[in-house]
Amino acid sequence: MSQPEICPQVRTSHRLRYNRQPKEKALSNGSRRPVAAGNWKMNLLRRDAEALCQGLCAGLDTELATDIVLFPTATLLATVARQIQGSPIALGGQDLHPDASGAHTGDVSGPQLADAGCGWVLCGHSERRQDHGESDVLIGSKARAATDHGLLPLICVGESRDERRAEQTFAVLRRQLTAALAEKPASFEIAYEPIWAIGTGEVATPELAQRAHAFLRQTLTELVGEERAATTRVLYGGSANPSNVADLIVQRDIDGFLVGGASLDSGKFLDIIGACARHQS
Ligand code: 13P
Question: Residue 265 belongs to a domain with what CATH number?
């Protein structure tokens, strides 16, 4: 049987050399290493996943000034794990069950994700809250289960359009964040994903996003203390693409991106990674 092509380590002229980029900004998020995360949602077959990973790996330098994580569908985890071996890309699951094992047809557990090579897991994505009726309390259990099994939960929060219109945004974010951390997960990162911006092309303005991120960081200070709040990465998600990320990443409380549609295109995702890394360098 022929071996799948592993992420090539050769340096090409097209390879992005982020660590050699000049310093551009010295804002307070400069102390937090950015994260460029790709949520593939329920997309791609194995051959597409292989091609996408190969495109990404071919364009990456191994000494990046940013963390990169891919969140493929569960059926693609093994394929992606093989492809990214030896590269700076980390792997994550899109969801986990709070239990370690048992009679839960269709679910996947923390130990199973870790066994598949995952280091991260999404908790509480709005599509799971909406499509599967996930409650704030359940998401808190999932975040705790994640860290109990050695996974870093990326906890997703965000308001709907109606909630924003009703000026409920901060109340919703506080409620979601408080519940997600209620069981005291050992570690976590946050993604602010306003539902009205997801898949719509209607990205949040940098000012609006910064206000939400600053609010989340302030709420984190109350919940887990100043030191942890200052080191937690708060990613923005919702129609992030190469043409808007540069204006978002310079905001002091925006520490990277959770990218849906644009992460399915290696060129676009590399551009987003490049914007994160340039800002950090
Ligand atoms: P889009 O980037 O496609 O708007 O999706 C955002 C998202 O939901 C990432 O988790």
Answer: 3.20.20.70
